[in-house]
Every structure is written in structure tokens, then in C-alpha cells.
TrEMBL record:
PANTHER family: 4-DEOXY-4-FORMAMIDO-L-ARABINOSE-PHOSPHOUNDECAPRENOL DEFORMYLASE ARND-RELATED (PTHR10587:SF137), GLYCOSYL TRANSFERASE-RELATED (PTHR10587). Signal peptide: none annotated. Residues 4-189 form the NodB homology domain. It comes from the Bacteria. InterPro entries: Glyco_hydro/deAcase_b/a-brl, NODB_dom, Polysacc_deacetylase_ArnD. This is Polysaccharide deacetylase family protein. SUPFAM superfamilies: Glycoside hydrolase/deacetylase (SSF88713). It comes from Aciditerrimonas ferrireducens. Transmembrane segments: none annotated. The lineage of its organism: Bacteria, Bacillati, Actinomycetota, Acidimicrobiia, Acidimicrobiales. PROSITE patterns: NODB (PS51677).
Amino acid sequence: MAGDRVALTFDDGPDPRTTPRVLTVLDERGLRATFFVLGAAVARSGSLAAEVVAAGHELGVHGFRHEHHLLRGPGWVLEDLRRAVGVVGEATGQAPRWFRPPYGQLAAGSLRAARALGLEVVLWSVWGKEFADPELERIRRRLASGLRPGAVVLLHDSDLAAPAGTGARTVALLPGLAEDLAVRGLRAERLDRVAA
Ligand SMILES: [Zn+2]
């Protein structure tokens, strides 16, 4: 039972330009989240990945590279995910539990690779589309319309696989999202505390 909890999730980081700012707002507002990281970004910014975990958040894997799994063979996907799991483990000392494929593309090979590596696949139930919309108020309403117990909210803490400005827009959205959660009696949590 999700109770009063909503899973807050961020894709495409960690990004030294924006992820620290996201962490600051989450801390100020008492929000917890799961970050679906790119292995290549963790390899560059391992200490930032460790900082995310030390701040009480959780890491899942989004792939080593941000590629369309439907255009890749099962062997490529398995190797990519294995690398991602490896660098997350090295950076944080923790084995990731969750996997969200890039673009939400669930190829047969993605599912097989997840099973082989013991990862649980997670998509989302509400997103802001903040990567494609400059209007903060419209994004806020889009997110608010999907807030209910057990919802999985998708935002991006990074521009690494999204248009420039996406991560900064997420930073700007978080205080409003925190208010919208509070008025509904909901709180943002890590996936492992929503899905448990
Ligand atoms: Zn992504």
C-alpha cells in the first residue's frame, strides 16, 4: 500500500550543473527521490552519485548510454545495463534495484537483461514533459493532475539527454510540486518506500 506516498523520480543524471541544485531543494522541502542515472555520467561524476545516496535518496539505472533499446540487440542492451550496474555499485557501494529504459522503450531485450541482472523495471504514471515545455505553470498543472497515492512522478535532473535548460526547469518546478503534494496530504518518497 502506498498510503500517502508518491514516488518522485529523476532521469538522466547525475549532472554536476544541475543535480546539486536539485538535491538542495529536495533537502529544503523534505522530499526523497529515486534517481535513474546514466552509467556514463556516474563514471564521470562518481562522487556526485555517492552524494545523492548520502543525502538519503536512491539510485536506479537508466542505462550506461542513453540509447533506443528498440534499435539495439539484446546482447548490446545486456552489456550496457551490466556496465551501468557496475559503475553504480563502485560509486555507491550499493546494488541498484530499479531499471527504467531510455525513452521508456521496453524492448524484449531490455526485459531479459533486467531479469538477468535482478533489476525491476519501472516506468512512470505522471510526467511534467518539462523537457519540451517552457511554461512552468502548465507543467505544474500537468504534474498535479496525476498526484495520488502510489503515483510515479518523472522529472529530469539533467540536460545530458534532454534539451538545454531541462535540469534548471526541474529545479524551478520543485517548490511548487512540494506545495501541491502537501495540500493533498501526500509526500514524495523513494521508490523502495512506495513500492514496498
Ligand atoms: Zn532519459
